[in-house]
């Protein structure tokens, strides 16, 4: 099905789980695909497809077909979609093509189209994370027992309406990659392989398409200081953020969660809230279990936890010396407890309590301090609330007694 036509030069089609940019005019393409990857001048289209559907990510057939004979796999896929005999660059993913996001950005006579699919729940990683395989003689030898999940890929097809020099085409890939990382950073997407923020996934793919003819002088740049670079960055960042909303439910407001921020430290689901419960009374535990969002999704508390995590990152990146960690983390932990309790006047109390426990345990990492601070703060809030309710109840009883006596 034709979804739209752009620049009078490219058609965007979707056929079930197969999405294609078909060229009406000759285009130059740079892509990461196994079949017709690199820089090509003789392609008819580029496409993105849900390669594991409907077999599922556990099937042995998709990986064997794609890795062993990508040319045969591509030919069969094109034939199946009525495009037999055409030359194409391919991108593949487990993400649903129905969650496609399309963004168009323009400035004067330059236009950029970004078409993205994405999923990051299982395969998000940070550049430099430990590898899972070593490639030798066309095969991957496992380095670790635990292999990466089969799902989790961000694929982006980008098209411009102006020709580019080859160097600018490569620079466009760099700018688009930076935009992808910016999108993941803005959503606080954790790496699944280290306690760090993700910069992408282990299987991301990209294609950038530009017309071979047009301007007398092709674009020479696609970096941040150029209009083309600005448009690429904006279109790609927004397309990725939109597709992740539909694929993974990653709306920015959904990310306002202490548990989400602490995922990369081993907390998942309700685990962070559960870790606070030993500090609470029986009634407070029951209350928090019934309504964990009162603590987990309270914006001031979330921001305080985010600051704690950022302190950890800054020290890990060498922005501040490692010996500063204990003091900074305990101080911010006290601020978390203040946010959870609503008692700024109790900051020193929380600081001393956290310092005592950190000294006793020998730990000052976020995985230890965050649940401890949340528990201390919520316990204080609960006790204060119960004390107030008890006082009000006593006043009501006294009033009732006075009325009965009169």
CATH topology of the largest domain: L-amino peptidase D-ALA esterase/amidase
Return the CATH architecture of the largest domain.
4-Layer Sandwich
How large is the share of residues in beta strands? 15-25%
- Determine the fraction of residues in helical runs and give it as a percent range: 40-55%
Gap between N and C termini, in Å? 83 Å
Q: What overall geometry do the principal axes of the alpha carbons give?
A: elongated
Oligomer: single chain
Number of domain units: 2
What is the average of the pLDDT values? 90
What order do the strands of the largest sheet run in, or round the barrel if closed? 5-4-15-13-9-8
**Structural class determined from secondary elements:** alpha+beta
Radius of gyration using CA atoms only: 27 Å
CATH class of the largest domain: Alpha Beta
Number of strands: 15
Strand/helix succession: EEEEEEHHEEEEEEEHEEHHHHHHHHH
pLDDT < 50 runs, ≥5 residues: 54-59
3D structure, described in words:
- With 406 residues, the protein is α+β, with helices and mostly antiparallel strands.
- The protein folds into two domains: 2-251, L-amino peptidase D-ALA esterase/amidase (4-Layer Sandwich), CATH 3.60.70; 258-396, no CATH class.
- It is built from twelve helices and 15 strands.
- It has helices at residues 60-68, 70-80, 166-186, 227-248, 258-261, 271-276, 282-290, 293-296, 299-316, 325-341, 347-361, 366-405, and strands spanning 2-6, 10-15, 18-23, 27-31, 38-40, 45-50, 88-93, 101-107, 110-118, 124-125, 133-136, 139-142, 154-160, 200-201, 205-211.
- A six-stranded mixed beta sheet has the order 5-4-15-13-9-8, with helices on one face.
């Amino acid at each position: 099905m034709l979804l739209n036509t752009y620049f009078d030069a490219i058609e965007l089609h979707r056929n079930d789980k197969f999405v294609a940019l078909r060229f009406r005019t000759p285009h130059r393409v740079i892509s990461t695909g196994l079949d017709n990857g690199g820089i090509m001048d003789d392609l008819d289209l580029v496409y993105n497809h849900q390669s594991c559907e409907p077999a599922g990510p556990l099937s042995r057939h998709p990986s064997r077909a794609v890795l062993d004979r990508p040319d045969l796999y591509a030919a069969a896929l094109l034939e199946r979609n009525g495009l037999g005999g055409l030359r194409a660059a391919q991108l593949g993913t487990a993400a649903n093509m129905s969650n496609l996001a399309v963004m168009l950005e323009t400035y004067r006579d330059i236009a950029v189209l970004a078409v993205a699919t994405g999923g990051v729940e299982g395969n998000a990683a940070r550049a430099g994370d430990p590898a899972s395989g070593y490639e030798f003689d066309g095969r991957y030898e496992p380095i670790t027992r635990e292999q990466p999940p089969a799902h989790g890929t961000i694929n982006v097809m980008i098209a411009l309406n102006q020709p580019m020099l080859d160097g600018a085409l490569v620079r466009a890939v760099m700018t688009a990659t930076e935009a992808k990382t910016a999108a993941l950073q803005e959503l606080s997407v954790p790496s699944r392989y280290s306690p760090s923020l993700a910069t992408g996934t282990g299987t991301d793919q990209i294609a950038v398409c530009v017309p071979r003819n047009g301007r007398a002088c092709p674009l020479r740049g696609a970096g941040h200081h150029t209009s083309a670079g600005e448009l690429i960055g904006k279109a790609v960042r927004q397309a990725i953020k939109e597709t992740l909303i539909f694929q993974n439910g990653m709306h920015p407001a959904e990310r306002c969660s202490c548990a989400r921020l602490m995922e990369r430290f081993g907390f998942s689901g309700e685990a962070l809230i559960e870790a606070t419960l030993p500090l609470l009374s029986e009634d407070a535990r029951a209350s928090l279990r019934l309504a964990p969002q009162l603590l987990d999704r309270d914006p001031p508390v979330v921001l305080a936890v985010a600051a704690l995590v950022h302190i950890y990152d800054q020290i890990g990146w060498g922005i501040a010396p490692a010996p500063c960690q204990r003091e900074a983390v305990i101080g911010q932990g006290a601020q978390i407890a203040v946010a959870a309790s609503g008692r700024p006047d109790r900051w020193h109390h929380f600081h001393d309590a956290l310092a005592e426990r950190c000294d006793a345990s020998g730990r000052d990492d976020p995985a230890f301090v965050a649940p401890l601070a949340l528990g201390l703060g919520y316990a204080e809030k609960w006790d204060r609330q119960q004390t107030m309710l008890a006082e009000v109840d006593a006043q009501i009883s006294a009033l009732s007694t006075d009325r009965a006596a009169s």
